[in-house]
Design brief:
Elements lengths: L1 H54 L1 H19 L5
């Protein structure tokens, strides 16, 4: 029974290590992206958004709808 617990613990630890590596990778890519946006300015952001919308039009439309609804819910109660 104890060896099974050790195997489970090592599996959990391996899972945490993989998750940590993924988080580090995503954070590094996010830092790189933010740095490139700072260098490229608004034109770089605009180009990337247009490229994303062309590649994923339905996803972009759903994201825009969600953002619009969220902004409407935040600003809506004060207008009545």
């Amino acid at each position: 029974m104890e060896s099974q617990d050790q195997m489970t613990d090592s599996g959990v630890q391996a899972g945490f290590e993989r998750a940590g590596a993924i988080v580090k990778d995503v954070a590094e890519r996010a830092r790189d992206t933010v740095a490139s946006y700072r260098e490229g300015g608004v034109a770089q952001v605009s180009d990337d958004v247009l490229e994303y919308v062309r590649r994923q039009p339905v996803t972009a439309l759903l994201i825009a709808t969600g953002v619009g609804l969220l902004v409407g819910m935040i600003l809506g109660p004060g207008r009545r």
